[in-house]
Amino acid sequence: MTTPMKKICYIIAMRAEAQPLTEHFALRHAPDFFAPLPCQLYRGTVGEAEIYVVHNGRQHDRDLIGCEAAAITTMAAIERLRPDIVISSGTCGAWQRYGAEVGRVYLGSGVMFHDRRVPGDNEWATQGLGNYPVWQGTAALAQRLGMATGKVTTGSSFDMTAEEEAIIDQNGGRLKEMEGAAVGFVCSLFSTPLLLVKAVTNLRDAETDDMETFQTNLRRASTALMEANAKIVEELVKNKSNAITK
C-alpha cells in the first residue's frame, strides 16, 4: 500500500549548509532533543507535512563532518523522528569532464563508498562498496524539476588517492563527498527511503582544487542547495505520486 509523505527529514553535515534551509522554512530549534549527542534538530511544518532538519552538530567548536557523525545523526533521527523519507543534503566535489560546474545541484542516482578496499570474495566487496538503494521516485522527481542526476560516492577524506579515483570511475561515480553512503547504510537497516541532494563546491579536475576553493564556493553552493531543496519539499508535499510504498 502507499501512505502520504508526512515526515521529511534532512540530514546535513555542516551548519552553513543547514542554515539557509532552516531560515527559509522558519524552522524552530530544539537544542536538547538529541542530548547528549551533538546533532541539532530544527523542526516545522509545510502544508500538512512535518519538516525536520538535523545537522551533525559541533565538537571542539568545529562542524562534525564525515561518515561516523553522519551515521550517528541518521540513526538518532530515524529512531526518534520516524521519517517517511531521509534526505542527505550537502555539498560535493565533481568533475568538469562530466559536465559539472560550481553551484549545480544534483539528485543522487545511487550511493557507494569509494575508499573501502576489502579483500576477499564478492560478498565482502559488495559490503565494502555499499551501493545502497536510493528512493525509487528519484528519477521522476529529477525529471519534473529539470535537475541532473549522478551517482554519489563517499570517502572519509577531503582529498583522494589515485586508487580511489579509479574506483569512482569504475563504478560510474560523478559526485564525491563525505557522508552520503553512511546515511545510506543506516537508511538501509531501517528500510527508510533515501534521497540525496548535492551541490557542487569544487571541481576535482580543475587547476585549483583545495580547501580554500571549497570555502570560497561554499556560500554559493549552499544558496543553490537551499533553492533546490525548497522546490523539492514543495514537490514532495503537494504531489501524491510521491507517496511512499510500504
Description:
This protein starts with a strand and ends with a strand. 43% of the residues are buried. The protein has seven helices and 13 strands. Strand 10 (148-154), helix 5 (162-170) and strand 11 form a beta-alpha-beta unit. Strands 8-11-10-9-12 form a five-stranded mixed β-barrel, surrounded by five helices. The chain is globular, with a radius of gyration of 17 Å. The protein is α/β, with parallel strands linked by helices. Helix 1 (15-24) runs parallel beside helix 7 and helix 2 runs parallel beside helix 6. It has helices spanning 15-24, 67-81, 122-129, 138-145, 162-170, 180-190, 211-238, and strands at 2-3, 7-12, 28-30, 40-46, 49-55, 58-59, 62-63, 85-94, 105-113, 148-154, 173-177, 194-203, 244-245.
Distinct helical segment count: 7
By DSSP, the count of extended strands is 13
The major beta sheet can be summarized as: 5 strands, mixed, barrel
Strand order of the largest sheet: 8-11-10-9-12
Share in helix: 25-40%
Indicate the proportion of strand residues. 25-35%
Report the end-to-end length measured between terminal Cα atoms: 6 Å
Flag low-confidence runs.
none
Shape: globular
Return the structural class: alpha/beta
Descriptive tags:
five-stranded mixed beta barrel, 36% helix, alpha/beta, globular, 7 helices, 13 strands, two-stranded antiparallel ribbon, 246 residues
In short:
By secondary structure, this protein is an alpha/beta fold. The protein has seven helices and 13 strands.
